[in-house]
Amino acid sequence: MASYSILAFLITLLISAAAAHPAIPSLIHKACSQTASNLQKLCISSLSAEPPSANADLRLLSIIAVRIAANNASQTAAYLSAQQTDAAASGAVDPMLYQCVADCTDLYVDVAEQLDVTTAAIDDEADKDAMICLDATMADVTSCEKGCGAVATAEIRRRNDGAKKLLNITISLTKLLMAPKGL
User: Fold this and answer.
1) Fold of 25-178
2) Which range is the signal sequence, renumbered to this chain (predicted)?
């Protein structure tokens, strides 16, 4: 009788553990395996963290990836805007850093707006238009990075790096939509 109770307890424990950590859908693994090897873990964790991804097709996964990148860009634009405001209020402003932050703020606002257009393009199955927008967003992030150069703070560099990773994931997934065989 005791062994039956232990077995029932273990089965209940396994079932609850499986429910608490649902399996990542195979489409996420397949899609993310098409990204650069250094981005695959980020791709899987980012997409699987979004509840709609559990039942998503490739098009919806691409839209989810765009939304993740857009959220990142919006947060970066807000951070940079706050840095610009704080620097102006303090009066002790490095003119080169201030210009870097001002330019990057504008660029990240543009990135967020372009990603909204990208979402609509993917939703409308205008995948070539989506790629044009994604290329423009990557160019904006690169412009921020190059425009700041050596005056960029560690936080600006970290945010640019994160944005580029998310955009590269989004570009990879969108390219899959354009592939003749898909996945």
Assistant:
1) Butyryl-CoA Dehydrogenase, subunit A; domain 3 (1.20.140)
2) 1-20
